[in-house]
Every structure is written in C-alpha cells, then in structure tokens.
Amino acid sequence: MIEWLMYMALGAALGTMGGLFGIGGGLVAIPALGLLFGLDQQLAQGTALVMVVPNVLLALWRYHQRNRIDLRHALALSLCSFLFAWLGSIWAVGIDAQSMRLGFVVFLVALAIWNVARMFLKAAPASAELRHGWPWLGLLGSVAGTMGGLFGVGGAVVATPILTSVFGATQVVAQGLSLALAAPSTMVTLLTYGLHHSVDWAVGIPLAVGGLLSISWGVKLAHALPEKALRAMFCVFLVACALMLGFEL
Q: Which pLDDT score is estimated for 227?
C-alpha cells in the first residue's frame, strides 16, 4: 500500500509536468524510473507508457476544451505518427539497453540545443493558423512517431518545437496538436512493449492513477503562463532530463 501511494505521488508530479508541457509526463518518468527503481531503458520506457497513454488522452481533451484543435491537422499528424510509432517500437525492443539509453541521452541533448537556439533566433509572429499543411504535417508525424516509438515519449516532445518554429503555431496550439499526434502513437507503442514483456504494470498503473489526478492542473497552468516563460521552462526541463539520464550511463 505504501509503495502504491509512493508511485501515485510520483505519478502526480509527473502528470503535472506532462500537462504543463503537453508531453504526457513520459519524458521525465523514464529517467526517474531508471534512477529511482533501477529499471533498464526499455523497461523504463514501457512502464512510463502505462502512465503516458491515459495522461495524453486526458490532456488532449483538456487542451481541446480550452483551445479547439483543428481536426484536419490532427488527423494528418496522428495517422502518420501511428504507423511510424509502431515501426519505431518494434525497432526499440530489439536494441541493447545500454545503447538505447545512450541514444535517448543524445536525443534529449539535441532537443535541448534546438530549443535553446530557438530562443535566440528571430522568428515570425506565432499564429493559430499553420504556415504549412499536408504533406509537411505528414512528414512531421512520421518523424515524431518514429522517435516516439523508439524512445517511448509519444512524439510530442519532437513535434512541439517544430510546430512552433517551422509551422509558426503558438506554444499552446503546438502542444494541443502534439497531443493529438501522440495519442495513437503512444497506444500502439505501449502494446508493442507489453507484448515483448517490457512493462512493469505494478509500477505503471499507480503512476497512471496519480498522473490522471494531476494532469489537468498542468494544462490549466500552461494556459495561464506567458508564451516566452513556457518555452524557457520547456528548455530547462529538457536539459534536466538529459542530465538525469546522463548519470545512469
């Protein structure tokens, strides 16, 4: 019982961050599970997905309530993401755990560098209307889906900065579309990891319960924060996650 409460408390903290940044909490859950519970990379990713899937679905609903998501854009992203997430997850379960962990650290560092660089680059004013439609949204869904399936983070963490910079979306609109992209890809990735016995359900289920209880607070906070502050926090968040995983190598 004490362990369940501990996992639920951790899930609540991760759920809040997932709602805040539109990523479902998996990005920080993976290094946390490795550091705190000694899970190898694939098992940490699969277990985190148990929390991520319901969190992403709830966060998507909350974002859509506050800021309606364009169905045309969401479908283009989600359909391509679904297919490539499945392929990426099949690839992931066959990779050596240490190599997977190193790849994940590189992935996070690259994302952090990209996000920091964006803060100093001159950009056109953000808009609720995207600068590019199909087939570019399909390409983004394919790349983000592959990364999501490979690293178990749903692809939202890849899609969000690209949607804000290349596609010109506001941070909130980008996070809503990223959640639409992540919803089907996280489900097929969890299924693949589960079939390959890379999920600790006893840890993942209470994490999911805690996340569901708190993710709405994160979404509410995301809509209350200034655009620049939210982007800066996202950069710091990525760097912190990369450092956490770096200690495990």
A: 65
Can you give the pTM of this predicted structure? 0.74
Nearest by Cα to 216 from 6, 43, 17, 31: 17
d(CA 70, CA 29): 29
What's the angle, vertex CA 33, arms to CA 30 and CA 36, rounded to 5? 140
**Which pLDDT tens digit goes with each residue over 228-249?**
777 777 777 777 777 766 666 5
Please give the pLDDT value at position 97.
Answer: 72
Question: CA-CA distance, 42 to 91, in Å (whole number)?
Answer: 11
In sequence order, what DSSP letters do the residues of 103-154 get, joined into one string?
A: HHHHHHHHHHHHHHHHHHS--PPPBSS-S--TTHHHHHHHHHHHHHHHHSST
| Bridge partners, residue 127, by sequence | 169
CA distance 75 to 95: 30
CA distance 225 to 19: 13
Widest pairwise Cα distance in the chain: 52
- In the chain, the percentage of residues whose pLDDT exceeds 70 is 82
* Alpha carbon 245 to chain centroid, angstroms: 16
Q: SS3 for 169?
A: strand
Please answer whether residues 177 and 143 qualify as being in contact, where contact means their C-beta atoms are separated by less than 8 angstroms.
no
- Let me know if 32 is exposed, middle or buried by CB neighbors in 10 A (0-12, 13-18, 19+): buried
Residue 38, φ and ψ in degrees, nearest 5: 70, 25
